[in-house]
Amino acid sequence: MDNDQFDDALLRAAMDRTALSGWGRLTIVDAARDAGIPLDEARRRYPVKAALLLKLGRLADESALVDDGSTGTVREKLFDLLMRRFDVLQQYRAGVRAVLRTLPFDPLLAAGLGAATYESMRWMASAAGLDVTGLIGTLRVKGLVGVWTYTLRAWDRDDSEDLSSTMAALDQALDRAARLGNLLEYGRRRSATSATAEAATTHSSEIDPSIDLPLEPHPNYP
Cα 48 from chain centroid? Predict the structure, then answer.
């Protein structure tokens, strides 16, 4: 068994047990025994069980970031990147949903996963063609975290096989981010160049790489 097979077996066993008993009752020992893998190797690779969730996040990122040669607008790229992340979460759906139920009662875990989510969205934004450097880049990434959070809540409730509700929610979140972003962009241009009346009523339907994604995450949902 190579490292990838080991990680997959342990992660699946852990998420299956989490779905049944909850994240709080999960131990690496139990997951390793369920998977039939050596305890010493499980201890070496996963010293704390939160490392399993970080591994799942990395798997989702790696799947999203695979270069398939596709082209499109920034908005289209963001849509594809984020849906590929959801495709990975869907493979562990019951376990992930159980973890989400735990987060309001485990602030340390929520904080750790929040930091990991921010880093993931920084990769997604950059891969889609957005500049993520500087203060404006930070605002863009925070906005994309908001898009992800909004869509994650929809995914949590989406029982369809094709994730149609999740895709609709992502569309809505990206559209809202684009509208708000263009309004902010218009405000900056107007103060700098005294825009014309025609420019004041023109709004693009695409996310412009030069503007923010100012959609704030829900305050009570990581």
Answer: 22
pLDDT at position 23? 97
CA distance 107 to 71: 39
Domain span holding position 81:
72-222
| Structure token digits, residue 9 | 């077996």
Whether the CA torsion 120, 125, 127, 131 is positive or negative: it is negative
Domain count of the fold of the chain:
1
CA pair distance 116, 87, nearest whole angstrom = 18
Nearest-Å Rg of the Cα atoms of the chain is 20
Task: Give the C-alpha separation, 15 to 216, whole Å.
Answer: 29
User: Does residue 50 fall inside a structural domain?
Assistant: no
CA 157/CA 149 separation, integer angstroms: 13
Residue 199 inside a domain? The answer is yes
The pLDDT tens digits for 204-221 are 333 333 333 333 333 333
C-alpha distance from residue 99 to each of 20, 26, 44, 94 (Å): 11, 11, 23, 9
65, part of any domain: no
Q: DSSP class of residue 47?
A: S
CB 86 within 8 A of CB 155: yes
According to DSSP, residue 55 is labeled: H
Give the count of alpha carbons within 13 A of 219, CB side only: 0
DSSP assignments along 103-131, one per residue:
GGG-HHHHHHHHHHHHHHHHHHHHHTT--
Instruction: Report residue 41's pLDDT band, with 50, 70 and 90 as the boundaries.
Output: very high
- Summarize pLDDT for 14-38 with one digit per residue, the tens: 999 999 999 999 999 999 999 999 9
